[in-house]
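Thread: quick sanity check before group meeting

JM: Hey all, I'm pulling together slides for Thursday and realized we never actually wrote out the predicted structure for the chain we discussed last week. Dropping the sequence here so it's in one place. If anyone has concerns about the input, flag it before I start.
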Amino acid sequence: MAFSELIKKFNRFLFIIGGCAVVFMMLITVADTILRFFKKPIVGTYELVGLAAAVVLGFSIPYTTSLKGHITVDFFTMKFKPKAKKFWLVLTRLLGLFLFAFMGYEMIVMSNDLRTSGEVSATLQLPFYPIAFGIGICLFFQVITLILDTILAIKEEQK
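JM (edit): ok, ran it. Output follows.
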């Protein structure tokens, strides 16, 4: 199995975790709404939905990139020649690579800070650091995905 296929499968696994978090958000919101009708709301629903939303966003980024599912605005490069388009594609991938590497590193540092400080959510006392660490790891998989995407774009340029 090629390295790129392995990364794509792992990105898909992360995406499935994000999808499960969406389902969890939906179920807990519906359950809380129904139980509020009976004067028995679920304590901490707001916190759980917020943490699940962070999982959804962070864990879906690498797979969406590997599918080229992000919105691109090519109005600027529309009139360029193919070589110029490839140049801008590679340049933007490299800029994104550095941005996500920086964000991933900072998320790992932040998760360590949250762990050492013992910071937890207000109502349920859930620790924040596992979510921050998971998002940091996902951002590093985004970096790997962008590296593979950049290599593919350069190879296509040489053909």
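AS: nice. The chain has four helices and no strands. The radius of gyration is 20 Å.
JM: adding both to the slides.
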